[in-house]
Amino acid sequence: MLSTILLPVGTSDSARVDDLVSHAIDVAEPAGATVVVAHVVGADEHDVDGQNYPYAVAQIGFDVQSRDLPAEKIAEDLEPIGEIVDRLEEAGVDVEIRAAVGNPESEILRIAEETGADNIVVGGRKRSPAGKAVFGSTAQKIMLNAPCPVTYVRDRS
Length: 157
Known about the structure:
Blueprint: E1 4-8, H1 17-31, E2 34-41, E3 45-48, E4 51-54, H2 55-60, H3 71-77, H4 81-90, E5 94-101, H5 104-115, E6 119-124, H6 129-135, H7 138-145, E7 150-154
Parallel strand pairs: 1-2, 1-6, 2-5, 6-7
Antiparallel strand pairs: 3-4
Helix pairs in contact: 1-4, 3-4, 5-7
């Protein structure tokens, strides 16, 4: 039985919002499943105001000493997360928000384990084989290491 769908969303997923939301609703609604919208702020370190904080985290004022970020703050401050949550709620789908700071692949897999995800829906874009080999792919790493089935929603552009 499908009860929890994990939908990791990054700020670069703006072009895929329609596809991600549509797929999440199509799967969650008939099953009565909860969609866990997750966002991971990468831990790329930069010096900000004399502090060695992840730059994106420092910009939006999160307490980087804590592993988990306030989920409500993520929904309020970052797009397309807020838009996705609003659209899922408007469709009558139960939604939870999770957020973390760190390595995106590791944190998404950790959240999948913590929430008992039955399915992970990842967005991605078409990449050349050389691009995958040189730069890696978060979606690919999640697909290869996930504790449950993964659905890949590719950008149509």
